[in-house]
Amino acid sequence: MTAANDEAPRSTVLAGVIRQCGIDMAISKKAGKGASGVPKPEKKGASKVAKADWKEGFKKKQAGVSDMTLLTTISNEAINENLQKRWQNGEIYTYIGGVLISVNPFKDLGIYTDTMVQLYKGKNRLEVPPHVFSIAESSYYNMNAYKENQCVIISGESGAGKTEAAKRIMQYIAAVSGGQDSSIQQVKDMVLATNPLLESFGCAKTLRNNNSSRHGKYLELMFNAQESFGLQGPEAYAITSRSNCLEVPGIDDVEDWHETLKAMQVIGLSAQEQNEIFRMLAVILWLGNLVFEESDDGYSKIDDPGVTEFIAYLLESDTATVDKALTIRVMETQRSGRRGSVYDVPLNVIQAQAGRDALAKAIYNNLFEWIVSRVNISMKPRTAHSHLIGVLDIYGFEIFQDNSFEQLCINYVNEKLQQIFIELTLKAEQEEYVREQIKWTPIKYFNNKIVCDLIEERRPPGIFAALNDACATAHADPAAADNAFVQRLAGLSSNAHFDSRGSQFLVKHYAGDVMYNVAGMTDKNKDTLIKDLLDVVAGSANPFIRGLFPDKPDPNSKKRPPTAGDKIKARASCLECALVENLMKARPSYIRTIKPNENRSPSEYDNKAILHQIKYLGLQENIRVRRAGFAYRNTFEKMVER
Ligand SMILES: Nc1ncnc2c1ncn2[C@@H]1O[C@H](COP(=O)(O)OP(=O)(O)OP(=O)(O)O)[C@@H](O)[C@H]1O
C-alpha cells in the first residue's frame, strides 16, 4: 500500500501496490484466507461484551506489563508468564519497545471496530494499550511527519496470525487516510478488496492453519455455478477432493465466492477478464482429472479422451495437439551446434503425470501473477512523490508429519526473514552503540546465517545446489534422481545443523528441527514445463492464455531452465535486497506473532509451545538489547526539525 502525501497530514491519499511475496515496499499478499478482508465477528452478543471489556481496558489496570522492557526479571519463563496473564485477560498485544508481540486469541475480541480506530487515531503508542492499530498509526504518523517510507515486517509460524495483522493495518490506514472524496473512497475500497480477491486464489487448509498461504501450491478450489466451463461441485475434481476435506468449520465457501466476485468488480475486472480467470481455473481442475494408463508397450495413454477434448476446448487449442503434448516429447538431436533430426519420444506414465501437473501449476502461478499485476494497474499511485507504508506478510514456518520440498522452501524464506530481523534489530543496534563509543556489553544471540548457508550456498553445494545437481543428472526415473540427491547430501554432514538419515534429512532450523522426506523432492524441484506443453499454450487461439505465457523459451539456449529451488532462492534474495537495502532507508516496525496452541482453541495456553516460540524468536535477547540501550533514538537532524 502506498500513501501519497498531501499538504495536511491527515488527508493522505491512498493508493496501492502489491507484489507477490511481499517484495519491495508493498503489501505482500499471500493468498487465500476467508474471503473477507475484515473477518466476520463471531456472535454479535459475544462481540459486544468483548468490546465493552476492551473499552474498560483503557481505564482498568492491565494484566502483567504492557511493555516487557519493564519486566523485573528477564528470562524466557518471565516473558511467558507475562504473555499468559495478558492473553488470559484478553490482552493479546504486548510491546518490547517498538516491537509488537501478538498472541493469537483464536476468537473475535471485538477490538477492530471503527470505535477502536477512533481511539487509536492520532495517539502516541504510550498513551494507549498495545494494539496493532498503534503500529499502523505510528507508521502513518512517521510517514507524514518525516516524509519517510515505512515498513511493517510481520513474522511468526503458520497460523500465528500474520495475515490477520496485515489486514488490520490495511483496515486502519484505509480508515484514517484520505478524505471523503468519492475517488479516494474508491481506492480505499480497492485496497480492502485486494484481500478477498488475492486470498481466494492462493490459500489452502493445512493441518496447521485452516487458511494457510500457499501461493500456487496445494490449493482447494471450490466453485459452483460455473456451468459454462463444465464445472460441478468440488467433489467432482481430483484436485479439490483428494484431501477428503470439502468443508472447513467457520468457512462459508458460497459466501466467500460471492465476496470474491464482488471484489473483482471493485477492482474493476471486466466481465471478459473474470470469464477468462474462471476458464483458467476450469482448465486446472480438468487437468487434475486427466488419468494416464500404461499402454501395452509401457508408455502412457490418456484414459478418457473426452477429458482431453474438453481441455483442448477450454484452451482453444486442437485436441490432437494437446494429447500429443501430454504423452510425447519431441526431441531434436544437435551436432556441432547445428540442429539435427527430430523424433518423438513417448512418455511413461510418471513422466506424463509430471508434465500434466507442471502445466496445471504453471497456469495457476501465471494466473496469480496476472491477478497481482492487474490489481496494481487498478491501484497505481495517483500522485507523484508518494511515500510508502509497506506491510510484509509471508507464509509462516511449518512442521508437519511429512515435510517435503514445499516446507523446505517455506522454512528457508522464514530463515531469511529471521536473518533480516537479526540484522536490523539485534546486530545493527549493538553495532551502533559500539560505533558511537557508548559503553556496551555485547548481548549474545543465535545467528541463523549458518542455516541459511546450509540451504542456499552454491560452493560447497548447499541443499538447493545438491538438488539441482541431482536433477541435472537427468534421471528419467524420479526415484533414481532422489537417490542421487541423497548421495550428494552426504557432503553436508559437517554442518552442525544438518543430519542425513537415509531417505530423510534433518535441518535444525531456528524455529525447530524439521525432518524432511527426500521422496519426490527432485521431481518437485525440476518443475519445468516442457517445451511441447508451452507450445500448446503459446498456440492457443485465446489471447488471454497466450498473454499468461509471454516468454517463449529459446529452443537453442543451452542454459538449463531455472528450477523451483532457483526461483525460491531468487525471491528470497529479492526480499533480502528490498528489505535490508531499501527498507533500511525506511523506518521498520515489527510484529512478532505467536500461536498459543495447535487446536485453534481460544482457551488453551500451551506453555511448552509458547516457550519454544519465545526462545526462537529471540524475545529475551530483544528485551535485553532494548533495555540496555536508549529508549528513544533519532538522528540529530530530525530532533532539531521536531
Ligand atoms: N487478532 C486475531 N483475532 C482473532 N482471530 C485471529 C487473530 N489472528 C489470527 N486469528 C485467527 O487465526 C487464524 C490464523 O491466522 P492467520 O491466517 O493470520 O495466520 P498466518 O500466520 O498468516 O498463517 P500462515 O503462515 O499459515 O498463512 C485466522 O484465520 C483467525 O481465525
TrEMBL record:
ATP binds at residues 156-163. Pfam families: Myosin_head (PF00063). This is Myosin motor domain-containing protein. Keywords: Actin-binding, ATP-binding, Motor protein, Myosin, Nucleotide-binding, SH3 domain. The keyword Transit peptide does not apply. Residues 548-567 are annotated as: Disordered. GO terms for cellular component: actin cortical patch; cell tip; myosin complex; plasma membrane. The keyword Nucleotide-binding applies. Belongs to the TRAFAC class myosin-kinesin ATPase superfamily. Myosin family. One of its GO terms (molecular function) is microfilament motor activity. It comes from the Eukaryota. GO terms for biological process: actin cortical patch localization; actin filament organization; endocytosis. Residues 63-642 form the Myosin motor domain. Coiled coil: none annotated. It comes from Tulasnella calospora MUT 4182. Gene3D superfamilies: 1.10.10.820, 1.20.58.530, Kinesin motor domain, Myosin VI head, motor domain, U50 subdomain.
